[in-house]
Every structure is written in structure tokens, then in C-alpha cells.
Automatic annotation (TrEMBL):
Record field: compositional bias (Low complexity): 329-345
Keyword tags: Membrane, Transmembrane, Transmembrane helix
Transmembrane parts of this sequence: 284-306
The protein's name: DUF3068 domain-containing protein
Species whose genome carries this gene: Streptodolium elevatio
């Protein structure tokens, strides 16, 4: 009985230890991919630049309040397996809440590693692109190192460096920073101040841009919870410093920061997602390994106790201290052996050949164990339309209310 129980415990131990890596390596990627494709991944991020220069702003140079709204909408119809597709829109509003420029984008990436997949009609401003490097989100379990980060303005990737670990509103985050030097970048299909992109290109002017961007990233989820950017854009002639043909228009110059109420919403989401991820990726697999080890020890203990049970001369296990007679011996024989008459008569000699030979001690052979190595949000920042663009009429006013807490 003990041996059978030992084998059952051993089988359970092997099952628990084998299930741990299966949950971590097979179930976890599929669960996070499903989450990134669902409505839970829909996000709105609102940033603001005060005392900025925005071409055509009614407040004038250096006095504008520019608002940047970025929406992220998962596209489950285009997503497949671990490939996640997001449709995004970046819009800038002037001091009066009027949309002056916006850039739609589609981005496809691997759910766990964040590696771009270069599929599914990805584009920037309706023009096909091939993303390289991470963008908008860091990999799960972000490391303290530099990453290749994709710049949607320049449409190239460059290193974004890890700077330090900080405590940000009660949450441990990693600070990453990237500096993009002055670079010639594509002219978007919509420009501030009523500038017509085709007319601008016809004059031979070029769009130049530089920025210093910072992200505060929660490392377990890889989600940025706060961002800042010192951003400058200019329209230049090929030789803007030539006195004979000068040409330079400052399109934007400002220090963009994420608004606190929107950052707090991202922090709350990151805390919740962090707990769920650690449970699936670390705590449950570790618990299964611990349970498996305990079951293995219990199995070995039962096997050991079974081997220590005493045996009768015939090789059978003794059932108790008075089990010498055994149920198979006749009751009369037991009684005769205990009578005075039987005691007086000498016992007949036992032939040497008939003497019982003690049975060899049974050795237990253990089985081998394998080695297991909301409505308000929509009004303030609506999602892009099915074609990836968001009409300017969708932003009648600049957002002022914080996101819903529910």
C-alpha cells in the first residue's frame, strides 16, 4: 500500500515540475498577446507644452499652449498569434483647441519581445514603412541597458539609453533617454498655420527636426508611465544660412510633458498589470516547483518506511507482534504447542536440508525521475477611423478633464 502511494506522489511531483516551465514558456506569451489585442490595451495619452512656439498659433511666438494627443487602438482583425497590430494617431492642437497637424500610424510587433514584424499594412501618415527597433512600449521584463528605439518622425531607429532607476509616484521605474540630432525628415500631409505641404515642397523647403526624449518605464510590463520631450521643428530652404536666399520657419519649439492626471492613470494600469504578470510568469511556476519537490520527498519517505517493515521467515511482512502463528496455521497446532504434554515431549530433529533459509533482504528500486530543467475619453481623444486617419472635426476642443477612473 505504501509503495503504491509512493508511486502516486512521485507521478504528481513530476507533473507539477513539468507544468511550471510549460506555464511560463507556453501559456504566458499567449496570454499577454491576447491582452495586447483586446480593448484593455486601448490608451489615450495627453501631453502639453506651455510657453511654446507653434507656427500660426493665435497667442504668438513663445506664448502658445500646444496639446499633443496620442491614441492607441488595438486591431484584432489584423493581429495573428503573437503578432499584435496597433492603429495609432498623433494629433497636435493649438491654444484654441484646433487640430493643426496629425499623423496616423500602424505598428505591428511581437507581443513579448516587442520586435517589429513588418507586416499587416504598417504605415506612417498613410505611407508604407518598415519599423525597426522597439516603439511606444518596451519588452516585458525590461533590462537596464540601451535599446534600439524607432523614431516615427525620422523613420529610423537609434539607441535609447538606460539612465537610472527611480521611484515615480510609488512605482519603481527605469529612466531612458534619447537625443536625436538635427535631421531632415518627411513633410507630413498636414502642417500648422495653414501651410500646404505641396506648396512647401514646391518651393524646395525641407523639414528639419531635433529632440531630446525621456521615458519613465515600468520594467515588468515595459509600459511607459510618463514622458517628456524637448522638441524643435523647422522648415528650411536647402541653404537657410545663405544671406542671398535665407529661409527658415520655426514650426514648433517647446518642452512637451505628459499631463499628471493622464500619467496617474497609466501608473494605476501598470501596477495592476504588473501583479498579474508576476503571478503567471513567476509565482505560480515557482509554487508548482516547490509543491513538486515536497511531493517527491513525501514519495521517498513512504518508500523508505515501506522498506523498513519487518518480515516473517517466509518473506511475508509481519502484521503485528503476535502474528507468529499466522492465520494459515491450524488452531489445534497452536493449542497443542502450548499444552503441558507437548512441552514434555522432545521435539523431533529437523533435517538440515529442511531448515528454513532466511530470505534475502528485498532492495527497493525507485523509478527514475526525469530532470526538468470611456465616453469622455472618446470625446477628448477619439480613436482613428478605419482608414487610420482621424478627422480634424473630431477634436473640437482641447482636452481639459482627466480620464475616467473606472
Amino acid at each position: 500500500m505504501r509503495r503504491r502511494s509512493s508511486l502516486v506522489l512521485l507521478a504528481l511531483a513530476v507533473f507539477c515540475v513539468a507544468l511550471a516551465p510549460l506555464l511560463r514558456e507556453y501559456a504566458f506569451p499567449r496570454l499577454v498577446a491576447k491582452a495586447l489585442k483586446s480593448d484593455k490595451a486601448y490608451k489615450v495619452m495627453v501631453l502639453e507644452a506651455q510657453n511654446a512656439t507653434l507656427f500660426g498659433d493665435p497667442k504668438g511666438e513663445g506664448k502658445a499652449t500646444a496639446t499633443i494627443i496620442q491614441t492607441v487602438r488595438p486591431n484584432p482583425d489584423e493581429s495573428d498569434g503573437q503578432t499584435v497590430v496597433w492603429d495609432m494617431n498623433l494629433a497636435m492642437l493649438d491654444s484654441e483647441g484646433k487640430v493643426v497637424t496629425q499623423i496616423p500610424e500602424r505598428y505591428a510587433f511581437d507581443a513579448v519581445s516587442q520586435t517589429p514584424q513588418n507586416c499587416c499594412g504598417e504605415h506612417i501618415d498613410s505611407k508604407p514603412v518598415a519599423h525597426t527597433g522597439i516603439a511606444y512600449k518596451w519588452p516585458f521584463f525590461t533590462e537596464k541597458r540601451g535599446y534600439n528605439y524607432y523614431d516615427a518622425q525620422a523613420q529610423t531607429a537609434a539607441t535609447i539609453d538606460y539612465k537610472r532607476t527611480e521611484n515615480f509616484n510609488g512605482l519603481e521605474v527605469y529612466l531612458f533617454e534619447q537625443t536625436v540630432p538635427w535631421s531632415k525628415v518627411p513633410i507630413p500631409s498636414q502642417l500648422p498655420g495653414g501651410l500646404n505641404p505641396k506648396d512647401v515642397e514646391a518651393t524646395g523647403m525641407e523639414r528639419w527636426y531635433t529632440t531630446v526624449r525621456k521615458f519613465w518605464v515600468e520594467p515588468v510590463t515595459g509600459a511607459p508611465v510618463y514622458a517628456e520631450e524637448i522638441h524643435k521643428e523647422e522648415m528650411r530652404t536647402p541653404n537657410p544660412d545663405d544671406p542671398a536666399n535665407p529661409g527658415r520657419i520655426v514650426v514648433f519649439d517647446g518642452h512637451v510633458k505628459m499631463k499628471a492626471e493622464w500619467s496617474n492613470k497609466l501608473i494605476a494600469d501598470a501596477k495592476e498589470q504588473r501583479s498579474q504578470m508576476l503571478l503567471i510568469h513567476d509565482r505560480i511556476p515557482l509554487g508548482l516547483v516547490v509543491v513538486g519537490v515536497l511531493l517527491l520527498l513525501a514519495s521517498l519517505l513512504l518508500q523508505y518506511l515501506g522498506n523498513r517493515e519487518p518480515k516473517t521467515p517466509s518473506g511475508k511482512r509481519r502484521r503485528g507482534p503476535d502474528a507468529a502463528g499466522g492465520p494459515g496455521e491450524p488452531a489445534a497446532a497452536a493449542g497443542a504447542a502450548g499444552s503441558p504434554a507437548a512441552a514434555a515431549q522432545p521435539a523431533p530433529p529437523v533435517p538440515v536440508a529442511a531448515a528454513p533459509v532466511p530470505a534475502a533482504t528485498e532492495t527497493a528500486v525507485l523509478p527514475r525521475i526525469p530532470v526538468s530543467g470611456s465616453a469622455e475619453i472618446v470625446a477628448e481623444a477619439p480613436v482613428p477611423a478605419s482608414n487610420g486617419k482621424t478627422p480634424a472635426t473630431a477634436y473640437p476642443e482641447r482636452p481639459s478633464a482627466p480620464p475616467p477612473t473606472g
